[in-house]
């Protein structure tokens, strides 16, 4: 169960980073 939560948060983090970087690019441009 703990491992599942860790991998889910890791996946969520990657997704968040992707969305966040896109948002920064949109804001700058």
Mean pLDDT: 76
Helix residue percentage: over 70%
* Secondary structure: number of strands: 0
Q: Tally the helices: what do you get?
A: 1
Give the assembly state of these chains: single chain
| H/E element order | H
Give me the Rg, rounded.
13 Å
The best one-word shape is rod-shaped
The main sheet comes to: none
Can you describe what's shown?
By secondary structure, the chain is mainly alpha-helical. It has one helix at residues 2-28. The longest helix has 27 residues, at 2-28.
Can you lay out the helices and strands and say which pair or pack?
Blueprint lengths: L1 H27 L1
Question: What are the defining features of this structure?
Answer:
rod-shaped, mainly alpha, 29 residues
Brief overview, please?
By secondary structure, the protein is mainly alpha-helical. Helices cover 93% and strands 0% of the residues. It has one helix and no strands.
